């Protein structure tokens, strides 16, 4: 068995570091490299700047088998490089607009693809699709899927999600109702939702996550929505006021980045998925005690392990398409800092 060489681009960032930590603990025989713009201390630290393809040579020199992208690559340079050089690729960072562009680009190159290209940019490392499959294996029965997110401002947060909100809070995005795209905005259309794990009733507001696109356009679920609340009721209602009074529109981007960019020392994160068929409503709730970075990283590690098993043939995938949903559920359920609850 050859040692697998894995490069985590953005490996010195918040989620990248956790991915490397969990990978190393679970797979001591993997050969792990961290890619970032700055030079590091060891020969496992590679200089890879996604905006400068000249820096990609080290990927070939180190015989990398799999590229894990956890940093923003606006022009999809790494994706194109992976396709050209027949390297396995997984991306966990793209917000919805960027994901659709990258997916179209991969499909346009479909004839050339001789490796596994996996898009894992759904919520928390792309595990929602697997949880939906686990709860209702017959996808044609599902009429509606709603995701509710409890997001703590005390959680450790990477820059990318804060910057995405800052850049897009004034722009409409798409949710789906009976397969009709509907344009909505963040922090509007509030409703009350009763969260598990002792959180209780909260106002929840629209949020754009890639699962909207994945569950409707790829999985053909007719009605899909995502709503979120902050751990602070005050912050949640403030965001709602700012949006309805159009205060975000008059703020500078820098000010919006400061507003969304607060990051604490760590806190829990929770999300709940409601799946409706004609017969019944099912609900699966997930709590990550160590917060978002840990959950996203662990999900990504599950995808990496699956990609490096010899069973997956070349092609373009979303992360839930490479697994049996039962395996994902069981892996999450046995992880020490993750709790799952099912209500049928």
UniProtKB/TrEMBL annotation:
Alphabetized InterPro entries for the sequence: NAD(P)-bd_dom_sf
Coiled-coil region(s): none
PANTHER family with a match to the protein in the record: CARBOXYNORSPERMIDINE SYNTHASE
Protein name per UniProt: Saccharopine dehydrogenase
The organism of origin for this protein: Flavobacterium piscisymbiosum
Upper lineage: Bacteria, Pseudomonadati, Bacteroidota, Flavobacteriia, Flavobacteriales
């Amino acid at each position: 068995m050859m040692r697998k060489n894995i490069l985590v681009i953005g490996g010195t960032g918040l989620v990248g570091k956790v991915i490397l930590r969990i990978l190393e603990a679970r797979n001591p025989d993997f050969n792990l490299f961290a890619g970032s713009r700055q030079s590091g201390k060891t020969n496992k630290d590679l200089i890879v700047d996604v905006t400068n393809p000249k820096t990609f040579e080290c990927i070939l020199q180190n015989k990398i088998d799999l590229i894990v992208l956890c940093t923003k690559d606006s022009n999809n340079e790494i994706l194109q490089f992976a396709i050209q050089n027949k390297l396995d690729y997984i991306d966990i960072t793209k917000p919805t607009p960027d994901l659709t562009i990258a997916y179209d680009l991969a499909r346009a190159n479909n004839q050339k693809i001789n490796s596994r290209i996996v898009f894992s940019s759904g919520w928390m490392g792309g595990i929602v699709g697997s949880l939906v499959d686990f709860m209702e294996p017959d996808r044609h029965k599902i009429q509606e899927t709603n995701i509710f997110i409890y997001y703590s401002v005390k959680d450790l947060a990477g820059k990318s999600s804060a910057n995405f909100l800052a850049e897009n809070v004034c722009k409409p995005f798409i949710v789906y109702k009976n397969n009709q795209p509907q344009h909505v905005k963040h922090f509007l259309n509030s409703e009350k939702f009763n969260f598990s794990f002792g959180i209780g009733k909260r106002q929840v507001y629209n949020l754009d996550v890639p699962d909207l696109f994945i569950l409707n356009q790829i999985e053909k679920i007719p009605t899909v929505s995502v709503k979120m609340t902050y751990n602070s009721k005050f912050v949640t209602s403030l965001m709602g006021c700012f949006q309805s009074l159009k205060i975000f529109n008059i703020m500078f981007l820098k000010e919006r980045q400061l507003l969304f960019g607060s990051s604490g020392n760590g806190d829990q994160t929770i999300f709940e998925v409601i799946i409706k068929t004609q017969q019944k409503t099912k609900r699966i709730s997930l709590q990550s005690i160590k917060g978002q970075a840990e959950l996203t990283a662990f999900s990504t590690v599950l995808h990496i392990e699956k990609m490096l098993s010899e069973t997956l043939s070349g092609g373009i995938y979303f992360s839930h398409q490479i697994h049996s949903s039962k395996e994902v559920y069981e892996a999450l359920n046995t992880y020490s800092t993750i709790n799952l609850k099912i209500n049928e």
